[in-house]
Write a structure and sequence with these properties.
The chain is of the alpha/beta class. It has three domains: about 5-245, 2-enoyl-CoA Hydratase, Chain A, domain 1 (Alpha-Beta Complex); about 270-430 and about 470-505, 2-enoyl-CoA Hydratase, Chain A, domain 1 (Alpha-Beta Complex); about 435-470, no CATH class. Helices cover about 40% and strands about 15% of the residues. Strands 10, 11, 12, 13, 14, 15, 16 and 17 form an eight-stranded mixed beta sheet that branches. Strands 1-2-3-4-5-7-9 form a seven-stranded mixed beta sheet, with helices on both faces. α4 runs parallel beside α5 (about 140-155). It is elongated. The protein starts with a helix and ends in an 18-residue tail after the last helix. About 45% of the residues are buried. The model has no long low-confidence stretch (mean pLDDT about 95).
């Protein structure tokens, strides 16, 4: 065979590999409203940047007649490319090849690019669309999953890991996305569960559909497994690109600061009147967020889960930050189990990748009740406290209104190494609200008074308590609040603080690892 014939064979083999499971299966994939593995890569990466690895890999199984079918690539496409000029490593599971089922060699392909990403310090992106382990390979496919899990664990907090679920992801396969930093699910065609509906019915008797058991809505609203529920694959891919604008290549780099056209000295007069005079009246904290960030652009994470706390990425004068904010218009902004877990994970994500954290506080306390106590609110609340206390990135906290009890401590207070703690004049920082405090402090006297006299006395004492404790000035006297600021100047003060903290250096005590209350 001469050189021209060899080149011709190479071209033919490449063409064969690019067809995946064949034109019929590609057409079926399209009819289901799904893109192919290669189309997804092309949509995600910069044009012409994809460099494929292991195109000619095939499986090694001879059982169950598989030796007669050895598709090139073995059901997963792996390689590297660029997103906005930044190198990333990527794998995309190909459902047209044996249902995207994972084999030993398939896993080795994924592990190779994960190892490369760790060596080079670049993000890892996984696009999941697979029927699970290749049953014909038995324990070898299970071992393959475990090899991937181990690399997810070693890469955690070292390079950003993003998972997109654009098809089935079931059984052991779900744990790789669960170990990554961000999970995106498409509204249609995607689902995740450890055990499917059929086995569920056999074992528990519960009759449930795939969507109700593990669809995108379930994981975006109830379990919190999905950080984003995308309307379709196109939106999911745009979200991946957008997320990388706020994250660095790895834990040793800083996020990229971009040029902003939004004036850093912009005064926002509307904020002076945004907090209702009635302390029990709700407002939308997102209105404040959109006002203060660059160009009103806020990438909210977990939008549909634990709505009593808001988290996401934004920029201040081009500086990427993570925002954590209590949401007064949902459950009054109380902290509960789900909100604590949601915010704690986000704080740790920001700290892992050197993203400063801006915290907006309006929290009346923790949600009471047996359901919360039995569910472990003590442990889950401690996660958020732990995350803030462990974080070494710049931390700016602004108390907007209520900051009561243990929830005050948990929300990035000065004693959890908050770098700069501001308060608006509307802030109320105390052990508890005026009514509850007076009922405890004056309980004996109130019990001796007639109802009318008790009500009058209660009102007088509540007013006295408010003037004494439900203000930011006592905390400011002790230095727990660095300054009380005009709301309209909030953006200006945050930007100045971020620039002052740019050179912050803080290292935790050396240890093998922390023992966060999981």
């Amino acid at each position: 065979m001469n050189s021209q014939e060899r080149i011709k064979k190479l071209i033919e083999l490449r063409e064969e590999a690019r067809k995946g499971g064949g034109l019929d299966r590609i057409e079926k994939q399209h009819k289901q409203g799904k893109y192919t593995a290669r189309e997804r890569i092309e949509m995600l990466l910069d044009d012409g940047s994809f460099e494929e690895y292991d195109m000619f890999v095939t499986h090694r199984t001879t059982d169950f007649g598989l030796e007669a079918t050895k598709p090139l690539g073995d059901g997963v496409i792996t390689g590297r490319g660029t997103i906005d000029g930044r190198v990333v490593f990527i794998f995309s599971q190909d459902f047209t090849v044996m249902g995207g089922s994972l084999s030993e060699t398939y896993a080795q392909k994924i592990c190779k690019i994960m190892d490369q990403a760790l060596k080079m310090g670049t993000p890892i992106i996984g696009i999941n669309d697979s029927g699970g382990a290749r049953i014909q390979e038995g324990v070898r496919s299970l071992a393959g999953y475990a090899e991937i899990f181990q690399r997810n664990i070693m890469a955690s907090g070292v390079v950003p890991q993003i998972s997109a679920i654009f098809g089935p992801c079931a059984g052991g396969a779900v744990y790789s996305p669960a170990l990554t930093d961000i999970v995106i699910m498409s509204q249609t065609n995607s689902y995740m569960f450890v055990t499917g509906p059929k086995v569920t019915k056999t074992v528990t008797g519960e009759d449930i559909s795939i969507e109700d058991l593990g669809g995108a809505d379930v994981h975006a609203t109830k379990s919190g497994v999905a950080h984003f529920r995308a309307d379709d694959e196109e939106e999911g891919i745009l979200l991946i690109r957008k997320l990388l604008e706020y994250l660095p290549q790895n834990n040793l780099e800083e996020p990229t600061i971009t040029q902003s056209t939004d004036p850093a000295d912009r005064v926002i007069s509307e904020l002076n009147d945004i907090i209702p005079d009635n302390p029990n009246k709700p407002y939308n904290v997102k209105d404040i967020i959109y006002h203060i960030v660059d160009d009103e652009e806020f990438l909210e994470i977990h939008r549909h889960y634990a709505k009593n706390i808001v988290i996401g990425f934004a920029k201040f004068d081009g500086i990427p930050v993570g925002i954590v904010a209590n949401q007064p218009n949902y459950l009054a902004g109380v902290l509960d189990i789900d909100a604590s877990r949601k915010a704690a994970r986000f704080v740790r994500l920001c700290d892992s990748f050197n993203v400063p954290i801006v915290t907006l506080v309006d929290v009346p306390g923790f949600l009471p009740g047996s359901a919360q106590e039995y569910g472990g609110i003590i442990i889950h609340g401690a996660k958020l406290l732990f995350a803030y206390g462990e974080a070494t990135v710049p931390k700016i906290t602004i108390t907007l209104r209520k900051s009561y009890g243990g929830a005050h401590d948990v929300m990035s207070c000065k004693q959890l190494r908050g770098d700069i703690n501001y308060a608006w004049p509307t802030a109320e920082i105390a052990v508890m609200g005026p009514k509850g405090a007076i009922e405890i402090l004056e309980g004996k006297k109130l019990s001796t008074l007639e109802p009318a006299e008790a009500a009058k006395y209660m009102a007088e004492k509540e007013l006295e308590y408010k003037e004494m404790f439900a203000t930011p000035y006592i905390a400011a006297q002790y230095g727990y609040i660095d300054d009380i600021i005009e709301p309209r100047n909030t953006r200006i003060r945050i930007i100045r603080s971020l620039k002052a903290l740019a050179t912050k250096k803080l290292v935790n005590i050396p240890r093998k690892h922390s023992n966060i209350p999981l």
